Amino acid sequence: MRFIAICIALVTTLGIPMRADAARLKDIADIEGVRGNQLLGYGLVVGLNGSGDGKLDFTQKSVSNMLEKMGLRINPVDVKVKNVAAVMVTATLPPFSRPGSRIDVTVSSMGDAKSLQGGTLILTSLKGADGNTYAVAQGSTNLGGFSISEGSDSAQKNHPTVATIPQGALVERAIPFDLFQSRKVRVVLREPDFTTMTEVVKSINTRMGKPVAVAVDSASVEVLLDQKYQNDPVGVVSILEQVSVDQDVGARVVVNERTGTIVMGARVTISKVALAHGNLSVTIRSETDVSQPNALSQGETTEVTNQDITVGEDQAALKIVGGEVTLGDLVKALNALGATPRDLMSIFTALKEAGALNAELVIM
Question: Which has the least CB within 10 A, 75, 172, 279, 348?
Fold first, then answer.
């Protein structure tokens, strides 16, 4: 009987599904210090088929300076740059990148080049915000499209003046950073919230078996690496990332007026109100008629414009919506009014002004 009871307890425990609001810590937070760094450089793309820059001063000087470094001095005025384009090269240096690693780069035209198709980026230094060079880029541009023109006819696919070079940059210097030097790991929530932070601290301490987590504020928590965890700090971070947290999500309504998209959270409620929504429609129709005089008469042919104006309004009865209802009930009540997404934008705005919308209204 005892064995059967243990089996039933195990089945019951393992069969409990994860709560809907539960999420892994790695999906809602970041480890402080684990971040990428932006790199930027100026370079030249050569080998274009007449689609490069025109007679731009900075492109001509760049070509002249490049040739001078190779032992060939030439006047910038004499440089023809139809096959060359001045570009900005951007990249993101991932965290913990080491010398010899390769990263992707994006090449964007600076001048009036028509297309970067078929070009080759020559050696370009990529610098960080501190002015130091962390990578060098070179390689053939990958456009993913084309731009063709002949006379007054042209055809274009995708954007021809921005290209990528997969694995086109070689890391030359690593960014010095010791993640575990302070013997602490700080976890930062992407959406700061005091209730969620309380759950994070509780879940981490439960998982670690001791009170090692301390909340700093509503966004960050510090986890102390004691003597037991100092020998394997990477393993500790892996454990932290898998901690399940009951995330407290605030009530929010997001409205995108340009696309007519509305997204509502599960906790959105509306206080009981009386609501009516009607549409006023105005239709103006113009017709042009020709007045033709009889034969041999002294009249003239004239145009007569007739206008027909119709004004109508949908009849919308006053209805009671809101109260202690679920999201499904709320949607049904609004749909019963015959409201379209465009109408719902006006309705939610009015409800917020009336103080009846118990949620944050975000208009994009």
Answer: 75
Domain-wise residue ranges, the chain:
37-171, 178-246, 253-292+301-363
**How distant, in Å, are the alpha carbons of 7, 207, 240 from that of 15?**
12, 20, 24
What is the rounded CA–CA span in Å between residue 126 and residue 140?
17
Q: Are 322 and 272 in contact (CB under 8 A)?
A: yes
CA distance 251 to 265: 6
Token pair in block for residue 201: 């601290």
- Report d(CA 208, CA 203) in Å as an integer: 9
**Is 146 in contact with 123 (CB distance < 8 Å)?**
no
Q: Which two tokens stand for residue 260?
A: 């007519």
DSSP 255: E
Structure tokens at 81: 């740059």
Tokens of 298: 């002294």
DSSP state of 181: T
Give me the CATH code for the 178-246 domain, please.
3.30.70
pLDDT mean over 210-219? 91
Question: Per-residue pLDDT tens for 249-304?
Answer: 888 888 887 777 888 877 787 777 776 666 544 444 545 566 666 666 566 666 65
Q: Please say if the pLDDT value at position 82 is more than 50.
A: yes
R_g of the chain, CA atoms, integer Å: 33
List alpha helices for 117-250, DSSP H: 194-208, 233-241
The chain-wide mean pLDDT, for the chain, equals 78
Of 350, 329, 211, whose CA–CA distance to 275 is shortest?
Answer: 350
Residue 345: pLDDT band with limits 50, 70, 90: confident
Cα–Cα distance between 65 and 62 in angstroms, integer? 5
